[in-house]
Amino acid sequence: MSRILVTGSAGHLGEALVRTLRHRGDDVVGLDVLPSPFTDVVASVTDRAAVRAAIAGADAVVHTATLHKPHVGSHSRQEFVDTNVTGTLVLLEEAAEAGVGAFVQTSTTSAFGRALTPGDGEPAAWITEDVVPRPRNIYGATKVAAEDLCELVAGDSGLPCVVLRTARFFPEADDREDVRTGYPDENAKVNELLYRRIDLEDVVGAHLAALDRAADIGFGRYVVSATTPFGPEDLEELHRDAPAVVGRLFPGYGEIYAGLGWRMFPRIDRVYVNARARTELGWTPRYDFRHALELLRAGAPTRSTLATSIGAKGYHPVTTGHYTTR
Length: 326
Description:
Layout: E1 3-7, H1 12-23, E2 27-32, E3 41-42, H2 48-55, E4 60-63, H3 77-98, E5 102-108, E6 125-127, H4 138-157, E7 161-166, H5 177-182, H6 185-192, H7 200-217, E8 219-224, H8 235-249, H9 253-260, E9 270-272, H10 275-281, H11 289-297, H12 305-310
Parallel strand pairs: 1-2, 1-4, 2-3, 4-5, 5-7, 6-9, 7-8
Helix pairs in contact: 1-7, 2-3, 3-4
């Protein structure tokens, strides 16, 4: 049994991790600014004394606490720096001082920013760990800074640290109006499994794999998304005619979609590639587009039981645009 500190324990991923780790028998301490059934310490990650007390005796830290993209319109840049950068530094320093054996940092594919958007006539972007981030907002900028702090502290102190750039797994409606109004919600989310989405259960699995492999890796960054069926040879056509590519790879998908009144996106602009995470972490994600089609044929939900049971969390105390409330 390990003792593990999970920050952001009241959030989607934090709760999922606390539930899963406790179910397998680990001693878990949940820390969050919000009280919840999965939060043991109500405090900010910027509160060094609270972090030091919570981390005492811990074998590992999983840091999911963050201000997210939906907070860009409601929180200042300074607040993003305080939570996402300073809070991460506090955790890293205290983890190193305590001799913690593994630190897993939850980052985001949003860190790639403007590198995700090819120009007209260009092929879709092939997104691996080798792509240089070009943040488009304070969220992306602070997540990249937090990643760099992980690498710095890992190098200086020997703290084993794994950064996971996770694709979108939020259950809320899409943040783009044309998608929200043009596609049924499940339709859009299943489409995204082809290139930019991941199920919550698979995100948890990646974090568990990172915990297991951190000591051997030392420091590493990984893209964590559903396994794409596409290859580099598909990129030009994907950005021009995505349904044609999907139809070749999955000849039966059109019939399933037609029966549901669903549509494929006309164009796909980027493809997240999880090959390095699967190889180096020994991680085997389950919920990809092929599996979703199998579930649709069987009339079953396309999301995992874990994702469904946790549901939507929200990001604000009052409704803000299309984002849900807490």
